[in-house]
Design a protein that fits this description.
Strand content of chain A: 15-25%
Strand order of the largest sheet of chain A: 5-2-1-6-7-11-10
CATH architecture of chain A: 3-Layer(aba) Sandwich
Largest sheet of chain A: 7 strands, mixed
Largest interface: A-B, 74 and 74 residues
Helix content of chain A: 25-40%
Number of domains of chain A: 1
Structural class of chain A: alpha/beta
Oligomer: homodimer
Amino acid sequence: MEIAILLFDGTTHLDSVGPYEVLHNLPEADVKFVAKKTGVYRDRCGMLGLHADFTLNDVTAPDILVVPGGGGADGAAEDPEITDWVAEVHKATTWTTSVCTGALILGGAGVLNGLKATTHWRAMETLQSYGAEPTRERVVQQGKVITAAGVSSGIDMALTLTAEIAGEEVAKAVQLGIEYDPQPPFDAGDYTTAPDERIALWRSGINKTKR
Amino acid sequence: MEIAILLFDGTTHLDSVGPYEVLHNLPEADVKFVAKKTGVYRDRCGMLGLHADFTLNDVTAPDILVVPGGGGADGAAEDPEITDWVAEVHKATTWTTSVCTGALILGGAGVLNGLKATTHWRAMETLQSYGAEPTRERVVQQGKVITAAGVSSGIDMALTLTAEIAGEEVAKAVQLGIEYDPQPPFDAGDYTTAPDERIALWRSGINKTKR
């Protein structure tokens, strides 16, 4: 089972590493980090780099596609080299998925037209501009297309997908393996209940350091 | 604020990327991925590589140390080049932390002697052999030393640490930013309630593919 995870400049890496740590346990999974060129792809602040081992040309018919988001996703959603590839491999996939603003890239590829979908809360309006119907669930499934909300939601999405593919017992064993028994110290992850001051604090960019 | 995250061959990358996505938002945080040599460090199955930008010699007095685990942690805990560095920088840190079997590396460096600590459930006995008192909480704080349970627990740990350093409102804004409102599809992440068959399934290695 070939699983392609897309990288681009300005990827938020938890968007991909969360699902990766779940999905690479699927029986016979061969996960390929894919980008326009092989090499290290950094997040927006430049402090973390993941290595893409394969080019877009190397991976043409993955069983599963995972598209992460991040600050660079808005640009990637308008990059024909990326969106043409997404549109093309989507024809072959069994599952096409996104995390966070990765949904914008699916949108740019025409995958979400007329579908319910979700993304990071900051990008709901942009998502709509791609013809999707923004939905405030954490994981939204429409046929073979699954979109997940911001960043950390990819773990929940990938466990749901693992159960679909390999059954609940495998999904539960993987959940046990990554000890995913979340105990966040605060109840502050839901946009719909966040006070305006907190949203403004996040949007202001708390740490402005870049490298 | 300098934050050092250790890499080694066979790191489980969610152990570090989870905390990273939280901690890199701390005001003036400068996060450095550190290893024996610069370059790409792969997880045990070889499918995911993170780039270490700094050598151990480059980073001698970080404010925060984060030590992830993984299949390679048992060996790293017995590698004097790594454990000597951990022991040395621990003298300078404000916070010394581990995720998953990263606790074994702290143990190998003598940091956990006589302290309550936690790790991935598979390594509780090994942890004890390093003089720690294994504890079944998800995040265990002993003075400036914080250990977290398996893999995904690093997100919870890092949010707790963010609140300690920058206050609850910053931690809540970061939690909102990564949309950490976990909704696991199953209640299967807690080792103490897992049936033996599920533990055996995980231990058997569901996907044996390596690259």
